[in-house]
């Protein structure tokens, strides 16, 4: 009571710090036996991360003791090994003096977006806090989901995009927004804590958390504008084709409340257009229409936003990337070159950053595809040098620059340089974002292909062994991606007639997975098949048959997206070649079921994989193709 005037941006930032701390530790940053004790700790002590990885408190000037309180006994492992940048943001939010906190909730949202994009945050670490929390490699997706939820909370708490910023000083509006933000906070916290698994659990499914969060936020009955803002900021999480419908619905709901020049309207139009464009063939009429819409959005932004507003250049980059990666005509490459050079010029004035390097990478490709290869390679080398100088080997953007340069060196016939840059990219990815990162996977595939084309089978084998070792160390032996890479290594060992090594590795890995999980997890189905094939190649059919008895149960439990099942087609082929058509049929029927179930979400991928599965089922006699209905095509 009597503190209404203190409901300020700094108060919101403090509250967000408390909520983020609680979401990641399931504890409050300050506890005590009484309200007085809690207040004393709030005013005199600060949360700290000790060198042991435990949350503790730090003495303030008036503290009487230094006993650990908040989060006592919470280890780094139970925290899900949160990235140190996230720890810095939490502690900056919880600074005692308001002027030392992050300047606003909107600034926190920007920092969180930078964190989600793999960019370095701009906030300085608090004091001498030891930043020992490790990157949550085994649960990166969960950390992403939690931070995305907090980003949503930030926007729901304190950001009014168009009119409410000026009205924030009004006490009544502040209290109303506080009430609505409390509702949103409750939605998010209930979502997080209502999941079957704890955030730190090994088997957390971030997709379930994401879907539940969206369901609860969708039920929010507050200002339609605020709901739209939340979804706008959650767009980094909403990357599935089915999410487009949600954006279209919310845009339709909020549009009657917005005038033609409301920035929120144009931001939502940008989100919807970008998602539509990514789901459409680039050479279709619709694809052209969506690119034209992005051009209209750029024109509006240039006429209504400040000349150095970052959103202008994000939109230009999105359009240029589509022109370079998907359209690829000479006219589109020339247009993209102009857009990207304009972006780079702006970033040079404002101070070079992460986005500047992204633009340089795409500009390299735009120039290369126009036939100016040496100019492009020169730019690529300069971009790699600049990325090394700016971010070093401890940021994924440097790996991205080396990976793209490796691609173009390979295409230009400079194979040795391509291999060197490809290895550099892999090393950077492995020590920054991990081996299961999308671009790390594509870089590995490209490097492996280059080595094989050069006839360097031993070099490729060593690369695969190194990746399995990194996966084991960073993700763990039972991680789904680790298992996929062990499967690939087993197949390569057999192809190189190293069957004894394959037998030893496959048997050892199955035992390691059992030791961790008891029974085999469903994700080990592919490993089981690969090991069984190895045994059959060595003439150990009885052991292989016993092993394959587990296959129906594992395939029945297995979940995932269509891409997760693509590798099972050659596994079914291998079983059939070894005289095991029944087990091959188990795999193929599972693939058919998954494709039919996910046809709505991934129609093209479903149709392609379903065709392969049914073709093989006809060969094995598992099913008559004439009895199957064709998959719907979009």
Summary of the model, kept short:
Helix content is 66%, strand content 1%.
Task: Describe it.
Residues 46-74 are annotated as: Disordered. There is one protein chain. With 634 residues, the protein is mostly helical. Among the domains are: 1-220, no CATH class; 238-371, Serine Threonine Protein Phosphatase 5, Tetratricopeptide repeat, CATH 1.25.40.10. The protein has helices at residues 9-25, 35-44, 84-93, 105-116, 140-158, 164-167, 171-193, 206-218, 224-233, 243-254, 263-278, 285-304, 310-327, 330-350, 354-369, 373-390, 396-411, 415-432, 438-453, 457-474, 480-495, 499-517, 525-537, 541-548, 551-557, 562-565, 568-577, 581-597, 603-620; strands at residues 46-49, 55-58. Strand 1 (46-49) and strand 2 form a beta hairpin. The longest helix has 23 residues, at 171-193.
Going by helix content, strand content and strand pairing, the class is mainly alpha
Mean pLDDT: 77
From the N-terminal CA to the C-terminal CA, the straight-line distance is 59 Å
In what range is the share of β-strand residues? under 5%
Largest sheet: 2 strands, antiparallel
Gyration radius from CA atoms, angstroms = 27 Å
Categorize the overall geometry. globular
Number of helices: 29
Helix content: 55-70%
């Amino acid at each position: 009571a009597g503190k209404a005037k203190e409901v300020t941006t700094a108060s919101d930032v403090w509250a967000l710090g408390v909520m983020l701390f609680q979401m990641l530790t399931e504890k409050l940053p300050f506890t005590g036996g009484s309200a007085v004790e809690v207040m004393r700790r709030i005013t005199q002590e600060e949360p700290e991360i000790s060198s042991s990885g435990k949350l503790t408190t730090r003495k303030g000037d008036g503290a009487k003791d230094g006993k650990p309180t908040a989060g006592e006994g919470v280890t780094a492992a139970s925290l899900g090994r949160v990235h140190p940048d996230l720890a810095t943001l939490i502690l900056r939010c919880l600074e005692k003096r308001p002027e030392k906190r992050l300047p606003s909730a909107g600034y926190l949202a920007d920092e969180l977006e930078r964190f989600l994009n793999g960019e370095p945050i701009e906030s300085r670490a608090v004091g001498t806090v030891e930043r020992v929390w490790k990157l949550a490699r085994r649960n990166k997706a969960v950390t992403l989901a939690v931070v995305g939820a907090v980003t949503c909370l930030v926007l729901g708490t304190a950001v009014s995009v168009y009119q409410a910023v000026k009205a924030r000083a009004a006490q009544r509006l502040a209290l109303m927004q506080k009430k609505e933000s409390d509702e949103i906070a409750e939605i998010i916290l209930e979502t997080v804590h209502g999941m079957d698994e704890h955030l730190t659990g090994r088997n957390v499914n971030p997709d379930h958390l994401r879907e539940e969060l969206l369901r609860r936020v969708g039920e929010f009955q507050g200002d339609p504008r605020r709901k739209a803002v939340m979804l706008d900021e959650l767009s980094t999480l909403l990357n599935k084709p089915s999410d487009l419908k949600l954006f279209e619905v919310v845009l339709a709901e909020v549009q009657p409340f917005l005038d033609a020049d409301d920035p929120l309207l144009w931001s939502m139009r940008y989100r919807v257009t970008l998602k539509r464009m990514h789901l459409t063939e680039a050479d279709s009429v619709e694809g052209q229409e969506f690119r034209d819409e992005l051009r209209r959005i750029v024109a509006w932004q240039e006429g209504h936003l400040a000349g150095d507003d970052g959103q202008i250049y994000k939109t230009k980059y999105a359009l240029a990337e589509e022109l370079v990666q998907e359209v690829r005509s000479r006219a589109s490459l020339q247009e993209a070159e102009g857009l990207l050079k304009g972006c780079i010029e702006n970033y040079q004035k404002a101070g070079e950053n992460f986005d500047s390097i992204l633009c340089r990478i795409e500009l390299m490709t735009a120039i290369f595809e126009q036939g100016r290869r040496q100019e492009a390679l020169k730019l690529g080398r300069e971009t790699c040098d600049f990325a090394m100088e700016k971010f070093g080997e401890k940021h994924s953007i440097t790996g991205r620059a080396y990976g793209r340069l490796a691609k173009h060196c390979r295409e230009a016939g400079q194979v040795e340089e391509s291999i060197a840059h490809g290895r550099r990219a892999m090393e950077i990815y492995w020590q920054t974002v991990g081996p299961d990162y999308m671009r790390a996977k594509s870089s590995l595939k490209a490097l492996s292909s280059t080595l094989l084309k050069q006839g360097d089978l031993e070099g490729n084998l060593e690369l695969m062994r190194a990746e399995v070792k990194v996966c084991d160390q960073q993700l763990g032996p039972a991680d789904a991606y680790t298992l996929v890479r062990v499967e690939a290594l087993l197949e390569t060992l057999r192809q190189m007639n190293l069957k004894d090594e394959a037998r030893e590795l496959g048997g050892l890995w199955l035992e390691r997975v059992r030791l961790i999980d008891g029974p085999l997890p469903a994700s080990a189905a592919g490993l089981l098949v690969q090991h069984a094939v190895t045994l059959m190649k060595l003439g150990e059919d009885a052991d292989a048959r016993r092993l394959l008895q587990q296959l129906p149960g594992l395939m029945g439990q297995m979940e995932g997206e269509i891409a997760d099942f693509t590798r099972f087609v050659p596994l079914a082929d291998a079983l059939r070649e070894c005289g095991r058509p029944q087990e091959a049929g188990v795999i193929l029927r599972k693939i058919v079921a998954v494709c039919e179930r996910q046809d709505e979400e991934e129609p093209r991928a479903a149709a392609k994989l379903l065709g392969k599965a049914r073709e093989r089922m006809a060969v094995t006699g598992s099913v008559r193709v004439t009895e199957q209905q064709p998959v719907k095509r979009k």
